[in-house]
Amino acid sequence: MTESSTTEGESLGTLTETSSVRIREPRSYLPGLAIANFGIYIALLTPVLVSMAFKVQHITASPEEATGSLGLVLGVGALFALVANPLIGRLSDRTTSRFGMRRPWIIGGSFVGFLAFVVIGTATSVWVVLVAWCLVQTAMNGVLAATNATLPDQVPAERRGKISGIIGLTTPLGILGGNFLVSFLSDDVSRFVVPAAIGVALAVLFALILKDRVLAQKPASRMTAAQFLGSFVFNPRKHPDFGWTWLTKFLVMFGYAGIATFLPFYLIEKFRLSEQDAITTILLANLASMVAMMVSSPIGGILSDKIGKRRPFVAIAGVVMVVGLVALAVAPSVPLVILAQAVIGFGAGSFFSVDLALATQVLPNPDDTAKDLGVLNIANALPQSIAPAIAPAIIAFGATTAIGGYTTYYLFGALVALAGAVLVYRIKGVK
């Protein structure tokens, strides 16, 4: 981190309750965190993986324009997520509300995000969709930053792998739940508003039952410009393990989240599916992925706690995801697309279960927990910006070869994810 100092740490230091003295998290915490993450991912990932592609297709004139517009909307929106996550995380670290440090951001962000989802559903212009999606990404990633920051707040280090493993299941469940809803919704408005309403309700419920930390002493000074800019950067030489963790997460997430955006177009182009058939196929693929995750996620988290190692699980998970991405790229039929998604899900389950636990063990400053987790979450958001931005060029290049446009794109994602699986062993402070 560029701005870390003992003075600020002391000003933030007195809390009504700290994770260092916890033996176990509050009983209501785990189910509350699980339903909150489930809701956030239903609201945020359903558009990324399904609804936004069809929304853009409905308001553009050609498939080529739809591909470019989808890349623009998701790419620019992800940049806002990149900024919002660490910034709001840092602000929540300094929040002195009597209602807690995290709760105000969870509730406020949820309602702002919901209103922006309504705008997207009713929009008839790509530019309106773009602006509203940027607002969604800002608000909902703020909610995610504050929610994730409660893990080190509430859970002792030796139990974080198990908790992370259970929470890791909420990602595929959220994706599956969103796909399931969309398969029964025929118009753009309901495809955005219904998942958003569920997300808001569950996030607010978590905020209400959360035994949130409260700062007993206000920060000694206002946030300076250097501290503001420091919300988005860190010093990899001073904190190399944190830097390698960031890079590993970025590369693996590029292969997982960044690539998934264009699956609807891939299915329509390669297999000549209708819109409804594509939605049904994505639902089945995500169901297969979720089942695989349900197997690998808790096993990965529990075993990593028991063995006391994180890196092998992250590395193996990355390699499994690479195998699935290659299979997806060359799949000759729809059933094999579904099988490939199951393989990707199996790897992703183990990755998500251990990655967050590993990350909490390399944080540079315990007084900046949410800020540092927010910086790590940039590695989640940035691939969702870079991948759609470069996708049209890669797909266009691939289309001029015998390989094919989308096949080339998925193979590229597999290579990037493989690099992440290898580089996890550059992290030296965690086994």
UniProtKB/TrEMBL annotation:
Compartment annotation: Cell membrane
Keywords, ordered alphabetically: Membrane, Transmembrane, Transmembrane helix
Topology with respect to the bilayer: Multi-pass membrane protein
Residue span(s) of domain Major facilitator superfamily (MFS) profile: 32-431
One family name in Pfam for this protein: MFS_1
Transmembrane regions: 29-54, 66-84, 105-124, 130-151, 163-186, 192-210, 246-267, 279-301, 313-331, 337-360, 381-403, 409-427
Name listed for the protein in its UniProt record: MFS transporter
